[in-house]
Amino acid sequence: MISEPELDGGTGFDTVEVLTEVRPPRAPRARRPWLWALGGAVLASAVWGGGLYAHEQRQERGPDLRGYGVVGAELCGKAKFKALSGILGKPGGAGDGALLNEPGLHMTSCDMAFGSAETGYQLSLRYTLHKVTDPGPEFAAHAKYYDLKTPIEGIGDQAFFDDRGGEGGELRVLDGQVEIELTLYRQYSTDADGEVIQETKPLDLSGIEVPMTQDMLALMEALRK
Fold first, then answer.
1. CA separation for the pair 127, 78 (Å, rounded)
2. Is the same domain home to 171 and 202?
3. CB-based burial of residue 14 (10 Å sphere; 0-12 exposed, 13-18 middle, 19+ buried)?
4. How far is it, in rounded angstroms, from Cα 214 to Cα 159?
5. Do 47 and 114 belong to one domain?
6. Residue pLDDT, tens place only, 20-50
7. pTM of the model
């Protein structure tokens, strides 16, 4: 039972008690690490998936051929050989070699003579397009095997040359997925016993790699069109 407070000379209450309901502060809400982990996993999955898709797209498209393609009987027709013609005479007598055109590899070749068909210099041209595999890692090794030890700068990705003892010259060029080989040599005619009965008069072919390189550059440009 609550009694009346005592009055003292008309004064008010000695003390006043105020009852209030005070709620304790709410603890901070804990982060949910699994949500962050889930978001990171989703992002990583999306990035990985995008990378895989891009890789598959590249695989489907195949390697960059840099504009090169399949070449048929027009191979020697695309090669004008203006630089070599000025030294060896007018080219003629072109003949097309065997043609290989498979899903992963295309090869074709042709031959021609400079000057007389009997006494001129002979030239052989071979074109190889690797449609799938990269020939780059093996190109230098192949050149070394065929004694092409002189590197030529400023043409394709790699190029090697040899003058074949002054009898002609051989130039091999790698440009992306394409290998082009240009071989120049002096002609010989022999009898049934292997004796030489006719041969091309030897010329001073010092520095022949220069006109061969010039004609190769022109050929590469023509093949990319």
1. 12
2. yes
3. exposed
4. 13
5. no
6. 555 555 655 555 554 445 555 555 555 455 5
7. 0.70
Q: Would you say 81 and 87 are in contact if contact means Cβ atoms under 8 Å apart?
A: no
Residues 163 and 203 reside in one and the same domain: yes
| Whole-number Å distance between alpha carbons of 73 and 100 | 12
Residue 154 contacts residue 215 (beta carbons within 8 Å): no
For residue 202 the two structure tokens come to 């030897």
Residue 203 lies in a domain: yes
> By the 8 A CB rule, do 68 and 223 touch?
yes
57-74 confidence digits (pLDDT tens): 455 678 899 999 999 878
Whether residue 130 contacts residue 173, with contact meaning beta carbons closer than 8 Å, is answered with no
For residues 159 and 216, give the distance between their C-alpha atoms in angstroms, rounded to a whole number.
Answer: 11
